Amino acid sequence: MLKEYQQTGSPELREKLINEYIHLVRSAAVQMRGMASGYAQEEDLVNQGVLALMDCLERYDETRGAKFETFAFLRVRGSLIDFIRSQDWVPHRARSLQRHIEEAFRQLANEKMREPEAAEVAAYMGLPTEKIESHLQYMDRASILSFEGMMQDAQENASRMEPESPDLSLRPEESYCRQELTEVLARAVEGLTEKERLVITLYYYEELKYADIARVLDVVESRVCQIHTKAVKKLRDSLREYMEG
């Protein structure tokens, strides 16, 4: 059906193909909705994803060896990342506030010999507690989004560098580039502090919410958010070094 559509451009076939692969769009939208919270509804993401899917129908080239589902999912997901970033990105004042909050956390931790709560940091800085908590959540989403964007670029670069062959049985299951990317990320995770590794493990592998992780670590939820942001930033920096050579 896809071959016939690319040859004829039939609107009817395009509609059938969209219905056939809409599950890829919805899956990507569900993954991204946490990062889009406050900026876009899930249906907005689905609409954007459908546009990306339509572009994939035009651009797909089976001679490159990748399955259409793999090609389309990566492109749709990348489109959603770009869409979310276009809705809201981190302004300079937010980064400046983040530096002040991190310094306040360090000062209070040294004074109290324990992890400070968001309310204590807010009082120290003379700001409302809600502002500190909402800012930490905002920076966490921004950090994840930036990392996801870099991962998307790295995965697409790896796909482009894979050996091409019309006979899929001759292609290795994973290319050297993908293996190398996995190893880079594994080393980056090993370079995290014990607490950062635990947060990353519980959040991404055990799929726990921040409130649950806070109970495991015996800290407040805002602190989990801050630890997660710092961990993702370290992973992002390691990935950037790899991608820049």
From TrEMBL:
Keywords: Cell projection, Cilium, DNA-binding, Flagellum, Sigma factor, Transcription, Transcription regulation. The lineage of its organism: Bacteria, Bacillati, Bacillota, Clostridia, Lachnospirales. It comes from Eisenbergiella tayi. The keyword Calcium does not apply. The keyword DNA-binding applies. Transmembrane segments: none annotated. GO terms for molecular function: DNA binding; DNA-directed RNA polymerase activity; sigma factor activity. GO terms for biological process: DNA-templated transcription initiation. Signal peptide: none annotated. InterPro entries: RNA_pol_sigma-70_dom (IPR014284), RNA_pol_sigma70 (IPR000943), RNA_pol_sigma70_r2 (IPR007627), RNA_pol_sigma70_r3 (IPR007624), RNA_pol_sigma70_r4 (IPR007630), RNA_pol_sigma_FliA_WhiG (IPR012845), RNA_pol_sigma_r2 (IPR013325), RNA_pol_sigma_r3/r4-like (IPR013324). This is Flagellar biosynthesis protein FliA. Residues 17-89, 99-147, 189-236 form the RNA polymerase sigma-70 region domain.
